[in-house]
Amino acid sequence: MKTAFVRTTCTLLMLISLAACINSHQPITLVTLADGTRGLKSAVDIGPPGPSQGDLFVFDQPLMDQDRRDIGSNSGYCVSTRPGVHSQCQWTLLFFGPGGAVAGTVVVAGQELEAGKSVVAVIGSTGTYAGSTGEMSSEPNPDGTFIQTLYLVRP
């Protein structure tokens, strides 16, 4: 009787551990480059001439992998909230799959600094990345590209 209880308890503990491993989702790290030198971009000067609160920046740029191959697009907008310091931004990273079909998207939003590294929240995702949350760091390069590193987790 005691042996059966110990076996049953051990079996249950193993099954619980196995279920936890099967249901756990490993974080995904994606490193991309947004190409600010290509694509469309428009500045909309709302207030007095020059940088001022409320000015808009709208963009649709190629998204590349680390080998600088186009893998999608990086499209969105920023509203200047503190000119020369930061803007409030939202954009979508669209990833192409085989044959150029859309494989998935990741939507990010938050404050982007005018200089240096910014970290914004992942607020939505579809397709390959559906259900993912996390954050993305964005850092400008001297060549006009931005290193965008996504840290994604599926609940």
What would the keywords be for this entry?
single chain; 155 residues; mainly beta; AOC barrel-like; 8-stranded antiparallel beta barrel; 14% helix; globular; Dirigent-like protein; signal; Allene_oxi_cyc_sf; Allene_oxi_cyc_Dirigent
Folded structure, characterized:
With 155 residues, the protein is mainly β. It has a single domain, classed as Allene oxide cyclase-like (AOC barrel-like). The protein is 14% helix and 55% strand. It is built from 1 helix and 9 strands. The chain has an 8-stranded antiparallel barrel with strand order 1-3-4-5-6-7-8-9. The radius of gyration is 22 Å and the shape is globular. 21% of the residues are buried. The model is unreliable at 4-23 (pLDDT under 50).
Strand neighbour order, sheet with most strands? 1-3-4-5-6-7-8-9
Poorly predicted segments: 4-23
Largest sheet: 8 strands, antiparallel, barrel
Element-by-element helix/strand order: HEEEEEEEEE
Instruction: State the name of the first-level CATH class.
Output: Mainly Beta
Fraction in beta strands? over 45%
Under CATH, the homologous superfamily reads Allene oxide cyclase-like
Cα gyration radius (Å): 22 Å
Query: What sort of overall outline do the alpha carbons produce when their principal axes are compared?
Result: globular
Give me the secondary-structure category: mainly beta
**Known CATH architecture:** Beta Barrel
CATH fold naming: AOC barrel-like
**Count of runs of 4 or more consecutive helical residues:** 1
Count of beta strands: 9
Cα(first) to Cα(last) distance is 40 Å
Domains, number? 1
- Overall average pLDDT: 87
Helix coverage percent = 10-25%
